[in-house]
Amino acid sequence: MNELADNLERIRARIDAACQRAGRAVDEVLLLGVTKTVPPETIDMAVAAGLTTFGENKLQEARAKIPLVSGRAHWHFIGHLQSNKAREAVTHFDLIQSVDSLKLAGELEKWAAHAGKSQPILLEVNVAGEASKQGLRPEDVPAAVSQINHLAHLEVRGLMTIPPFTADPEQARPFFRQLRTLRDQLGLSELSMGMSHDFEVAITEGATIVRIGAAIFGERKRHELEE
Question: Whole-angstrom Cα distance, residue 99 to residue 103?
Fold first, then answer.
């Protein structure tokens, strides 16, 4: 517990310092704990230490864990979501960050309507055009937002991205800046960008959600990262 609480304290201090450098209020940035492979009892320890919002990227894992974690926890889905899993995502998650196609949006709309729920979403944007990653092309985002805005049960709150990984976090800055510019042009509020190695740069470029796993819960094993 002490190590986890200490990790959280260090991350919060770094978030606060990054916000000060950017002239932003610290409450403008949500710390999202990424809990892939993290057991429920450890997540409960994080809740006890004051972290209440968590991100999962595997539906099967999330389905098993969420009922076992404190009811104070809020859940975001951050992984690739297949259209045939839309019903489960609507059932379990407060925010779905990784909507990467109109087909998926249509399925989420169907199941949100069925549940009588307004489902908040973010659109995932492949800012670098990497073939290995999911996401809408930046130039396709405005039309996608326009079409999804006509769906009665989905609420587009903002954009999400995963830039190319580099050893130097500063090299992610142009991608974060591009996403912020696109967000601003569309009049949206949320920007989910930045992970354990580059979240401070993301905050200075306007991130409102930073997704941090290893710096809180420790490094995953290589085989877990490659799943």
Answer: 9
DSSP state of 137: -
Give whole-number Cα distances, 147 to 64, 95, 140, 160, 182, in Å: 34, 19, 11, 18, 17
Q: How confident is the model at residue 132 (pLDDT cuts 50, 70, 90)?
A: confident
User: Residue 73's pLDDT band (boundaries 50, 70, 90)?
Assistant: very high
Token pair listed for 42: 């450890």
3-state secondary structure of 77: strand
Q: Which of the four pLDDT bands, split at 50, 70 and 90, describes residue 187?
A: very high
Strands 74-77 and 119-124: unpaired
Token digits for 23? 């002239």
User: What SS3 class is residue 27?
Assistant: helix
Tell me the CATH number at 30: 3.20.20.10
d(CA 148, CA 78): 19
How many other CB atoms sit within 10 Å of the CB of residue 115? Answer: 13
The residue whose two tokens read 């990984």 is 165
CA distance 148 to 45: 38
- Residue 81: domain span: 2-225
Give the pLDDT of residue 2.
86
Q: Which amino acid is at 20?
A: Q
What's the domain count of the chain? Answer: 1
Q: In the 8-state DSSP scheme, what is residue 132? A: T
